[in-house]
Amino acid sequence: MERSKYFHIWLGISALLIAGSAAFFSVFGLSKLFAGAALSVIIMAGSLELGKLVSAAFLYRYWDVVSWFQKIYLTTAVLVLIGITSAGIFGYLSNAYQGATIEFEKQTTTLFYQEDRLEQLEEDKVYLKEELAQSILSLPDNYITAKRQLREDYNPKVLELNDQILDIKQNISDLKVGLVETGVDVGPAIYLARIFDRDIDTVVKFFIFILIFVFDPLAVMLIVAFNQALVIRDEEKKSRPRQGTAVNPETKKRWWEIYGERKPLIPKIKILNKLKKESEKPRENVLLKGGVRSRK
Q: Which of 57, 117, 216, 263 is 20–30 Å from 181 (CA)?
């Protein structure tokens, strides 16, 4: 199967971006948790993030070489650091959510208080009117002046309650307008809360947990996948024929095997040269019975 020769580059870039984003959110989330030593926590958490990624890459590349103690310890350390990173991301996102909703929650609380206060004032107004009516009924019909005096005594109280009710209604109206403007920042969360019929905090926590479940584990897996792609690429380069030759080095025949020889021809050539030299030596005369015989 033909593979893209640039795919490992994109894989490395995506792994670097996701791992870097996870490290950034985690480091600053942990610094918010330990605000008294923010700089120290940033340095420590940043070092641990780098060590986590290097440990994951090391385990993949040298799994068959390292001892079982190293495998167990490094695997446990990587998993624990993934949990710490996820906790830091949760702290960062929850802090951002609280910062966006603090004004909204403040206005909502004030609105609930004003509505309760309005309800109480309206009940007091009804009570005053009933009390006035009962007081008037308790007087004889010919006590007209007394009845008038009772109305004059109750009217300021009723008017005061009416003024308070009007002021509170105005405040409630202003708060509702402010909630509409502030709710723009948390509008999606409010909409999702209405869809799932849950409160906003529960919905936001649910989505934060989903994010941290795939965020840092995906970064670690992409680092491992990037190392795997590099190893496979190196193996393919080693098995690939040299530039300019179409013959696989593993199946290429030696020069003497081209002519059907199992061994090189050099020993045979040396033997033939030796025989040739011996044939060129001058002949010596040897006296034998019955004549002269020559030998080499």
A: 117
